Amino acid sequence: xxxxLPALLRLAxxxxxxxxxxxxxxxxxxxxxxxxxxxxxxxxxxxxxxxxLLHLRTVLVATVAATIVAVAxxxxxxxxxxxxxxxxxxxxxxxxxSFPPVAVLALAVPAVGFGEKPTLIALFLYGLxxxxxxxxxxxxxxxxxxxxxxxxxxxxxxxxxxxVELPLSAPVILxxxxxxxxxxxxxxxxxxxxxxxxxxxxxxxxxxxxxLAFVLQGGLIVAALAVLIYDGLSAIERYAARRMGxxxx
Amino acid sequence: MIEIEGITKRYDETTVVDNVSLVIEPRTIAVIxxxxxxxxxxxxxxxxxxxxxxxGVIKLDGADNRSVPDYQLRRSIGYAIQGHGLFPHRTVAxxxxxxxLLLGWDKDRIKARVDELMTLYQLDPQAYxxxxxxxxxxxxxxxxxxxxxxxxxxxxxxxxEPFGALDPIIRTKAQEDLLAIQKRFGTTIILVTHxxxxxxxxxxxxxxxxxxxxxxxxxxxxxxxxxxxGFVETLVGSSERPFRLLSLGRVRDAVEPGGAEGEAIPGDxxxxxxxxxxLWAGRPALPVKDGDGKLxxxxxxxxxxxxxxxx
Amino acid sequence: MTFxxxxxxxxxxxxxxxxxxxxxxxxxxxxxxxxGQARSILESLPSALGALLLxxxxxxxxxxLLKTPLVLRLAASVIALAALAILIGTAGGFLTPAGNTxxxxxxxxxFWLLIFAFTLLLADVLTRLNLSPSARVGALVVAALAVGALLVSxxxxxxxxxxxxxxxxxSFWAEGSKHVTLALxxxxxxxxxxxxxxxxxxxxxxxxxxxxxxxxxxxxxPSIALFGLLIAPLGWVxxxxxxxxxxxxxxxxxxxxFVALFLYSLLPVVANTVVGLAGVPRAANDAARGMGMxxxxxxxxxxxxxxxxxxxxGIRIVLVQNIGLATIAALIGGGGFxxxxxxxxxxxxxxxxxxxxxxTVALAFAAAIILDAVIEMTSTKRRAQPA
Lengths: 249, 311, 387
What we know:
heterotrimer, A: about 250 residues, mainly alpha, MetI-like fold, about 75% helix, about 0% strand, C: about 375 residues, 2 domains, three-stranded antiparallel sheet, flat, nucleotide-binding (chain B), ATP-binding (chain B)
């Protein structure tokens, strides 16, 4: 495959996505055959653009919060003072990942009620795990002689963390963030079952009214967002890894 | 001057370093040699307090090394390790600038120092400065590692198997470079190795360690000639002993009057190399020349054989 | 004897103190959807039992707080959890007025926090004990039997979640078996298709990137959308392929859910097969070739056994993921525990949500522990043999 082909495909996908969100009317003839009995082919109970932005905002807020908390926790348990918590935190992550996102969402409703809140909580909690796991892996598998050299050069604990450990861990932590964003984008759609304003609304409206055009447009927008964001973050990750001479597979 | 006084390190019940005392004269190279697990690395790491001793004192130029915070102490002591430990996310120039940056030197001074060291190590600052460590060969990485250790003009340089990961040819070159730089800066170097050959070649004095104790601390010739006990003797290697002894002496010190046939040997070559040359040439004697190419006498197999045994 | 504090113990003790004294232990509601009233431990239980429970959790908290022997910590956490589990049932009976069938009593935040705190203590003890894989499965079986015994004994019957269960016991088991069938069936199908596909991708280099990319993209389609999108093609198949409808293939219901789960499962299975096979040491492969093994022999005698733990890890991911995703099937009439979750959400009946969510979490949790143990057993067995 030519090197520019994937980039071109992604660009085309991006253009298509933006065009669809901004002006869904242009695509009406394409979706028309999927509807029955003269049902509308384009989602008409709200603006796709607003829903997309709300969807992204939900994921962004949850991921930023999850990143801060997860990385802070990972730093804490890899310092001498928090080392006691390291084995436990490992098993908790392992256990936590077996909680299905839907269950987390459903269990959050009794605690905080309907709307955006339970979705944010579910996304935040579920987003914590991959980031924490990756940060932990990165911080505990730093090359020994590099850390030795940092100590030998007279860096304080804080300087080692900021100047050596975190930069070296960045690609792996980014990998965790990427995973968490992609899970979050998909899980946010389920949030619409508890009345959060996300693209899930479009899909669920389609399921309820048996309108495949709705299901398709909602699903494709989320999928396109996920593919583009996943690729973008992968590219940043590869750049960071390459700078450190660690080629990723 | 580095004074190690009654240093002991215990981990639970195991004594890793056992009541060691050494004095290292300024501007010399002291080599600590021993098998793995002999405690040599631990002893080295107690000098810059990467390991805290259980008991005993280490003084640098008369001051207890615990009189300043550990990180400040380490900034004043160079430290180079096996496998170089370069920061993979920083360029070569940034790596070398690590300690000067920590010490807060101004930009121009750092740049000047980095350029000086890189030039000294035959790395073009323009070409190699902006590269990342993984873009260098093993030998170049090792040189950058030593340059980084020397960046803040430390009086003392600690080296833990610095040449351990190099292949034999680059290794010899790196040793020569280090000797040259030690002469130039007058740095006091403490070098840890398991290789007696390297110890004899590099050290002004050698400390032989086993099971946490220093068995013998003496000049290389003394260690070769009069090993303190069976362990030191084994480490020296009885079959290698005469050659190692010869490798310590220069040809010019073994010159006899008279002339000889054949290609002249430079006076600053080692006596060991001269013996090899004589044996290979199949001659009993070869002429010797000084730095200007002037013949100053001859060297003989017979003379060298006498020198291959301790007096 | 000097007292020293355990760092995790401080966290646990703080949670226990808050939960025992400041948070409600149980919630009482006059019927299933009105807001509830909070009840503390002492209000929820006959005074002697209430005091006993308080004493148990306080002693447990102190044991956690101080540096104490592991056995003592294990005992404290198990006794506290058992007491909580038994007494929450008692609280249900105690708080419900006699003969009132509308009133609902459910565990409140204090109860959940206490469970959380002592589970944390137990998890810490189990982690530090470094149990063997079979011991971990053993512990899981003991816990499952204990919960089972409590359920059968009827001591929880007065709790709201079990009242929800009582009114739909038949459908609970029917949806449960649908849920398990969906998760396991799609996994089995994914293994049958994914393993050969993975081997093929490993052998035929040009195929690898393409197949993995397509599977990756499928994974990014949100589950509810993928479920919905499969309705149309499967409806078409049911209508036009003779006999298909007889197999239960229909536009809505179990079929699209099954296909969607199958598609999601393919990526981890295929990707881990490829990674596992790629991770087989070159020397082992060369040696096998050098000894004259055919490609087929090499695959079954060398590559496959060596790649097995990695492939198993893929299967673990799929199983845990499928148990969770099968919940979504309810949205397109595919059944499963999701039916209760979404019904509950629709009726704002949280007990019903719990009736669906709790078994799902329990299933996923059990599957993770069992498969982790199996993975560890297969890889340690291999490590024990000289390489």
